[in-house]
Amino acid sequence: MRTLIVLIFLILFLVIFSPIAWLFLWILRKSDPAKADRIALSIVNRAFRIVGWLSGIRLTVKGHENIPADRPVVYMSNHRSYFDIVTGYPEVVGLCGFVAKKQVEKVPFLRVWMRMLYCQFLDRDNMREGLNTIKNCVKLVKEENVSIWICPEGTRTPGDEMLPFKEGSFKIAEMSGAPVIPVTIKGSENVFEEHAPWIKAADVTMVFGEPVETEGLDRAGKKALPGQVRTIMEETLKSI
């Protein structure tokens, strides 16, 4: 029943409500782009919170005070579930674009909201396109004041173990000088992945770590950055 209710809400939101919202936002963006961004963010955050509530997610958030309110950041999280974005996006500060795999760009309706909110689509099999995606992210951080959320493992890994980090993910922080916020998520796979295709209520914990500064890092500091962030996340996972 819970799965059916969530599915009905998503259909109503994406197919019925979204085209009307897009038209309104498209008109508003011509006169006030910043206000259009704020409204789009508010709509998506509200939709995610409703999905989380309908799914029975009992979310505990720690370390929210570690997110700077006056500058963009690069959120780096472990990736356990499709529900990571549902729980995480409403908790970020200001505008934030998620880096998603290229295949997500093919999903009707969803891709429009993602583009509207500065999400980037990464082609893992095309090095040149991947580099362009990183450059786009750096530009968003430096010129548009938009934070970026990326999962350095590159794919979902339910359980307490994490895959090796892809060091290219850290180029966004290194090239933009934005601090890294380590985000550790536990329990989100229990909402869906552990018993797909059914959605079940579950406890999810999300911890925002203290900022890891990247501006002015020397060569050794850049090389050590992935290991530093990974260690923070591993220790946080053990403590949850």
What can you tell me about this protein's structure?
This protein has 240 residues and is an alpha/beta fold. It has a single domain, classed as 3-Layer(aba) Sandwich (Glycerol-3-phosphate (1)-acyltransferase), CATH 3.40.1130.10. The protein is 46% helix and 15% strand. The protein contains seven helices and seven strands; from the N terminus they run H-H-E-E-H-E-H-E-H-E-H-E-E-H. It has a seven-stranded mixed beta sheet with strand order 1-7-6-2-5-3-4. Helix 1 (2-31) runs antiparallel to helix 2. The radius of gyration is 18 Å and the shape is globular. The two termini are 30 Å apart.
Task: Jot down its keywords.
240 residues; alpha/beta; Glycerol-3-phosphate (1)-acyltransferase; 7-stranded mixed β-sheet; globular
Beginning-to-end CA distance, first to last residue: 30 Å
Average pLDDT, rounded to a whole number, is 93
Flag low-confidence runs: none
What structural category arises from helix and sheet content? alpha/beta
Number of strands: 7
Q: What's the arrangement of strands in the largest beta sheet? A: 1-7-6-2-5-3-4
Largest sheet: 7 strands, mixed
CATH architecture: 3-Layer(aba) Sandwich
The DSSP helix count reads: 7
* Total of domains: 1
Q: What is the assigned CATH homologous superfamily?
A: Glycerol-3-phosphate (1)-acyltransferase
Order of helices and strands: HHEEHEHEHEHEEH
Q: Would you state the CATH class?
A: Alpha Beta
Write down the overall geometry: globular
| Beta-strand content bin | 15-25%
CATH fold-level assignment: Glycerol-3-phosphate (1)-acyltransferase
Cα-atom Rg, whole angstroms?
18 Å
